[in-house]
Amino acid sequence: MASRAVAVTGIGIVTSLGQGAEANWQKLIAGESGIHRITRFPTDKLRTTIGGSVDFLLEQPFSATQLSFALARTAAAEAVAQAKLGAAGDFPGELFLASPPVEHEWPQRVRLDRQAPGQPHTYAGMMSAAAQAGEDLYVDFLNGTIADKLADEFGTKGSPITLTTACASGATAIQLGVEAIRRGQTKAALAIGTDGSIHMEALIRFTLLSALSTNNEDPTKAARPFGKGRDGFVMAEGAGALVLEDAEAARARGATILGYIRGVGEAADTFHRTRSNPNGEAIIRAINNALGDAGITPDDVDYINAHGTSTPENDKMEAFGIQAVFGDKAGQVPVSSNKSMIGHALTAAGAVEAVISILTLQHQVLPPTINHDGPQDIPLDFVPNEARPADVDLILSNSFGFGGQNVCLVIGRNPD
C-alpha cells in the first residue's frame, strides 16, 4: 500500500480568521488571533464567554448542523476549484467527511415540544416528532446528512463516509482517503473536516469537563499552547478540505501538486474518556507509526505542527511524546500550534492543520505560537510569537483526541 504516493492538488480552509487559504495564511504569519467574545447567544451566566466562532457564513439563527455543512461546502469548493479535477459537480473520487455528532440542540427541542407535545424526549421520539413537524428538522439531524448533501453538490462517487474520532477526526478523514487511494479503491478523494458546534449546550458541556479556558478578559490572549499560563482550550469552528490524488495520475493529467501525504499513523490508548494515558505510549506509537509509514526517521522531520490545544495535560503529554520520539534532537525541531490563533476547531482541527501544513511547505515560513509567555518548563522550540522563515521539506502534523484517539500525518514537498 505504501508504495502508492498520494498527492495534494487542492486545499480549502475556513477558520475564525476568515475564508480562504490566502486570507488565513496572511493572518497566521502575522500572528493575528481570530478568537473573540461570543455574541451568538447570551453568555452572561457562563464561565467561558469567548470562542473562535465563524459568524460570517450564515445569518443567525442556525443550527450546528447547518453551519457545519456551510463550512464544509465553502472549504470543499475552494479545494475542488484549485485541483481542476473533473467537471463541476462531477468529482471523480470518494468523499471522506469528519463532522461533529449530529443532534438536536435546545432551540430545536423546544420547537419539537411545541409542535409535537407528548412525544417521548428520547432520540427516537424526537426524530419521530421531527419527521411529523417538517422535513428540515428531520433531514438536517440525520447522521450522515452533511456528507449526503456534499456528495450531491460535488458529485463524489461511492457511498460518502462520515466519521468522528473526536479531535483527531479531520486527520482520520485524510488517513482514510490516503488508504483508499493506496489500495487502488479510487484515484482521488475529497477529505474534509468540519465543525460549527459553538452553541450554548456544547459550551456548557465542555465547561463541565473543565476543558475550556476562562481567560475571558482578553480573548486574543486566552489560547496559550505550551505556555505556563494555559488554563484550557478555546472552542472554535472551521473547516479544512483537501483533494487527494494518486500521484502518478495527478502528474499524468498535468496537475499542480501542492505537496504529498507521505505517511499516516494512528494509535488508541483506551485509557480514559478525555485524558491520555500518563505513559504516553499511544501518542508515541502514533508518531512512530506515521514516521515508519513515510519511511523516514525523526532526524528527517523539519517542523512539527502540534496539536497544542492549550490544556495543561494535553500540551504536557504531547511534549512528552515528542521528546520521547525525537530524543536529543527534540529541542532543535521547531514546534508550533496554530490553535493559539484560531482556537480548537475540534472535529475539523486535523484537516485545518493539514491545510496549514501544505501552506507552510509552499511559503517556507513557520506560523508562530502566539501568547508565548517567556521561559518554559518544556524545553522545546515553540516558534514564539513571530513567524519564522525556514527550509521545510517534511512536516509532522499531530492530532490527539479525547478518548486517546491519536492520528499523525507526515506531509512533504516531495513524494519520496
What does the secondary structure layout of this molecule look like, with pairings?
Elements lengths: L5 E10 L2 E2 L1 H9 L6 E2 L12 E2 L12 H20 L10 E5 L7 H10 L7 H11 L1 H5 L5 H10 L6 E3 L5 H14 L5 E8 L4 H9 L29 E9 H6 L6 E10 L12 H14 L8 E3 L6 H15 L8 E2 L2 H4 L6 H15 L1 E2 L21 E2 L4 E8 L3 E8 L4
Parallel strand pairs: 5-6, 5-7, 10-11, 10-14
Antiparallel strand pairs: 1-2, 1-8, 1-9, 3-4, 7-8, 9-15, 12-13, 14-15
Helix pairs in contact: 2-6, 3-4, 7-13, 10-11
CATH topology type: Peroxisomal Thiolase, Chain A, domain 1
| Tally of strands | 15
The fourth-level CATH homologous superfamily is Thiolase/Chalcone synthase
The N- and C-terminal alpha carbons lie at a distance of 14 Å
Overview of this protein structure:
This protein is of the alpha/beta class. Helices cover 34% and strands 18% of the residues. The chain contains 13 helices and 15 strands. Strands 1, 2, 5, 6, 7, 8, 9, 10, 11, 14 and 15 form an 11-stranded mixed β-sheet that branches. A hairpin with a 3-residue loop joins strand 14 and strand 15 (405-412). It starts with 5 loop residues before the first strand and ends with a strand. The mean pLDDT is 92. Keywords: Transferase. Pathway: Lipid metabolism; fatty acid biosynthesis.
